[in-house]
Design a protein that fits this description.
There is one protein chain. This protein has 166 residues and is an alpha+beta fold. It contains four helices and seven strands, in the order E-H-H-E-E-E-E-E-E-H-H. The protein has helices at 12-19, 25-28, 113-116, 119-141; strands at 2-8, 32-39, 48-55, 58-70, 74-80, 86-96, 99-110. It starts with a strand and ends in a 25-residue tail after the last helix.
């Protein structure tokens, strides 16, 4: 079970606003691109978004389903990983003074991915979580709900191939 946390220099509400916007999923999650709503309204329970994961020349079509949502504080997602099965990803937001402590807990849920889960896979998930939380922090700390493609008086966050961020 991979658990990682990060203190984000933004309010829990600012962090929740990013998590609750399904269109922004690909801005903070490492791996997916081209998000498309499938059903429901993100982040309501049962809402589903589809996306593509690119691993070099390989392209996998996957989706994530909201399994649990406590508005403003908890989001649990079941992420489908093709033939490997699914993973449970729980994100908890805790007020920490004026800031937000974000805790991510991920583990295999269904399919052969659970059998393949080992210390090496755990280390890779930790690296992925570190990058994911850094992206989330950058978005939230930009302030004013700033989107990476929108410049304003607070600046903007750059995403794209030249920055190493999708």
């Amino acid at each position: 079970m991979a658990v990682r946390h990060r203190l984000i220099q933004a309010s829990p509400q600012a962090v929740w606003d990013v998590l609750a916007d399904g269109d922004r999923y690909v801005e903070w999650v490492v791996g997916p691109s081209d998000v498309t709503p499938r059903s429901g309204r993100w982040p309501q329970v049962g809402a589903t978004i589809a996306y593509e994961i690119r691993l070099g020349p390989v392209r996998l079509n996957n989706e994530s389903v909201v399994r649990r949502c406590v508005a403003g504080s908890e989001l649990e997602i079941e992420a489908k990983a093709g033939p490997l099965g699914t993973a449970r990803i729980a994100i908890e937001l805790r007020p920490w003074g004026e800031q937000c402590l974000v805790i991510v807990d991920e583990h295999p849920l269904r399919g052969p991915g659970g059998l393949l889960h080992n210390v090496g896979v755990e280390a890779l998930i930790q690296v992925r979580h570190r990058a994911m939380l850094a992206r989330l922090a950058k978005l939230c700390e930009a302030g004013d709900g700033c989107r990476p493609d929108t410049a304003d008086s607070t600046g903007s966050v750059s995403f794209g191939p030249e920055t190493g961020r999708a």
